[in-house]
Amino acid sequence: MAELWHGYLGPGAWIVFKILLIVVPLLLGVAYLTLAERKVLAAMQLRKGPNVVGPFGLLQPLADGLKLLLKETIIPSGANPVVFLAAPMVTFILAIVAWAVIPFDYGLVVANINVGVLYLFAISSLGVYGIIMAGWASNSKYAFLGALRSAAQMVSYEVSIGFVIISVLMCVGSLNLGDIVLAQRGLWFAIPLFPMFVVFFISALAETNRAPFDLPEAEAELVAGYNVEYSGMTFALFFLGEYANMILMSAMTSILFLGGWLPPLLIAPFTWLPGPVWFALKIALCLFVFLWVRATFPRYRYDQLMRLGWKVFLPFSLFWLVVTAGVLVAFGWAPRLAG
Amino acid sequence: MIVYAAAFYVFAAMAIASGAMVIASRNPVHSVLFLILAFFNAAGLFVLMGAEFLAMILVIVYVGAVAVLFLFVVMMLDINFAELRQGFLQYLPIGGLVGLILLVELLFVAGTWVFAPEAGQIVSDRPSGSGGTTNAHAIGLVLYTKYAYPFQLAGLVLLVAMIGAIVLTFRSRDGVRRQRVADQLARGPESAVELRKVKSGEGV
Amino acid sequence: MTAFSMTDLATVAPEIFLAVLGLALLMAGVFRGDRASGWISWAVVAGFAAAAGLVWQGGGARALAFDGLYVSDAFSLFMKQLTLLGSGLALVLSIRFNDREGIARIEYPVLFLFATLGMMTMISANDLLVLYVGLELQSLCLYVVAAYRRDSVRSTEAGLKYFVLGALSSGMLLYGVSLIYGYTGTTRFDVLVEQVAGHGAPALGLVVGLVFLISGLAFKVSAVPFHMWTPDVYEGAPTPVTAFFAAAPKVAALALFARVLVGAFGPLVEQWSQIIVFLSIASMALGAFAAVGQTNIKRLMAYSSIGHMGYVLIGLAAGNVSGLRGLLIYTAIYVVMGIGTFACILCMRRQGRTVEAIADLAGLARTHPMVAFALAIFMFSMSGIPPLAGFFGKFYVFMSAIEAGLYVLAVLGVLSSVVAAFYYLRIVKVMYFDEPDAVLDRPIGGTLAVVLAGTSTFTLLFFLAPGPLLARAQAAAAALIGG
Prior knowledge:
The complex is a heterotrimer of chains A (339), B (204) and C (483). Chain A contains twelve helices and no strands. Chain A has 339 residues and is an all-alpha fold. Chain A starts with a helix and ends in a 9-residue tail after the last helix. Chain B is mostly helical and 204 residues long. Among the domains of chain B are: 7-80, Four Helix Bundle (Hemerythrin (Met), subunit A); 112-172, no CATH class. Chain C has 483 residues and is mainly α. Helices cover 76% and strands 2% of the residues of chain C. Chain C has 20 helices and four strands. In chain C, helix 5 (107-123) runs parallel beside helix 11 (239-264) and helix 16 (369-383) packs antiparallel against helix 18 (407-433). The two termini of chain C are 26 Å apart. Chains B and C meet through helix 4, helix 5 and helix 7 of B and helix 5, helix 6, helix 7 and helix 9 of C.
């Protein structure tokens, strides 16, 4: 019995606890991100935003969640029920499992795998399935059009994200997220790789279907895009998944370019704050920019979106990749591995 | 070890089952979705073997890119299932015969299975994830040195595939008005805005 | 795990030269537009010539490069130059054709170049992996050029059919490769020989893998029963592309066949020899009988090429030096004859439009005596009538079969060439004895005339000086069998 406990149940319980330790704050963060979005947008548009439920509207997200939970889930008669119900689950689960490899501090990570960046990239490239399945299974023209747009958009921008990631990897020499953060002790990659940082951030906007690239849910032409037929909890899962993806992309930006859990300077007043707090602050900063962009820019036209992805970002990131590699080799800065 | 074995059997069984469903399901979209599931389980098996780099690349390339395009095409195709099944019955005998021959061959092959003497060596040469070099490092070391020649050739194959796709599908159409961002940006207020004094009550 | 050295790069110089030239011409073409296709084509032809020079420069001494993935020897020297000759001539034939048909684009010569690069890679492959990559490089280019006239339904169909069946054959080939790798633990040819030789009776899985490998390769040389794509693709593809198909890829695939079977699986000769004998007999028979009823000359040439592959495989089935020498000589002569015949077919235009029926050749002897004479030479040569070149090809192949004790194969070969002679001679009869109903266009164009003159002279006068070709084929065959 004791062997069973020490061999399997104990470690299993510890893993479940760690997972909960990430998922619960994450879901809370998602809930309050929706509130933050409405507050920030309101402030930028000289409005007040939600301020009725609870002090400063702080209970608004809970009220919204409760409402969605109690609403009926309607499955359209022409829909393919299995795929229809699987789609929001896929979106939500993918948005959550990606967090397994995110390091919050030195060694503070659920799964410290060697190929962390690739894992993140793989998971984020899978996000498209939830959307495309939803669009197809809904058996609705609006949903299908929205899904097609979204899939094309995400696949297009993934390519340049891949090149950006490769150029970061070349500077680090490891695919482990912890190593990537540690490599930025002297200088955050946002500075030497500034153009790639910008490309990454804009591609992240497109990858998460956020404004100004929110064509998949262009409400003016497509009603609401791929999730038009969803209601109640299925809709809520999409919603949660999307916002969790936003946070994930912000976390990726922080890790790849803003030094993850590291303070800006490794000197006294900055080092007083623990790593996870710095990490959260950086994520919050990125998220604020997400919202800021939404409040500022009009939506792109579809051909402009594709042009930007394929004719601007792709050649540009490829070019910078070559430049980065050239500089690393020319100055002997390329990282060397043992063995 | 029990967890490892259980994971192996789950992944393997799922991979085989979803592989069977790829050909068995009537709806082609379901087939593609099962194909994706099969890829996933194959990636899981790779992870169990300690080849996590390959697993991730499998997911990124096949699931993240190739299968999405598959799904795209299949969703837009208008396939007549009744017609497909007609042909199926017609070709069933010959197809079944070919399948049977392949199966028998496979059984023969499996029956006489002898491991190559080097096979054990290859497995033990595999770089482990924890100590020494990582997977990606090990692949990189042989890919860019020993196998540089086929690697470059594979690059040329991809280039040719791209040229081929462009040759066969790209048509430059005349009379299309394209957006020129530089022109738009170069346009100043002088050429775009005209200020006029309009007397009240008269209109422009 | 050391990086490759300069000697490696020097050994692979012809391939590197072609690859770099292809990339440069592609860039030039993209910036200059489709009007540049003419000079790009000539640049590619010049590049082929230069590559042939580089191959010659490299010499026939056996040299390995890239850790044994690449081999250069007298065999590869012979086959590479032959491939470059076939590709170059086919490209020369296409330039004017594409211009007249309004389908001249810069990608066309570049695709030819990459296809040829793929073939050279195949010829020099010393590893199953490189074999596959080279084969794919070549095949992808061929699929595209087959469908090159994309507004024509037949050309598109040809490309699609070729692609689907080619992909199937690649799959079979890969399956075979994986079995072979699984049972021997290596993909390198020179290691395979030792593995196979050392272990007495071969494992069944290895033999099954070998069968799949042979099937995949048989697809590429269009040997029966893997020939189904050939007539449709030959008929549907633009004529110069068909000329290309008939010449260069066959050379490369045959080289691969010889190198894999004789080079890597030489000790298993008893196992694969029967398969090759079967492929050979079936191809000869089908090539002879199915072609009789054809009315379209390109389709006829497709069946003719299937038949010729049957004769060539006799040499492989013999599996000895003289058999390989026969294979090499036959292939070389076949390339020249094939290009010449297609040059004649390219002359078949009426009021600016291409015609392809055999009946359109009626009375050619009166309207175009020189073209008719050349075509007659090729037809007589293909049916194996002495003293034309084609006779020598058949002669050496049959000799080797008798030498190896394959009497049945030799007799069947002679019989089928008698049947095949019927349809070759029918074309001659149509040209010389039928009344012309409408006159074909003239003049036929300078480049076409030069190619026609060159190939027909070679075919006609080969018997005067067969020595150099024989000597080089002998050296090449000995290089493969010897080591």
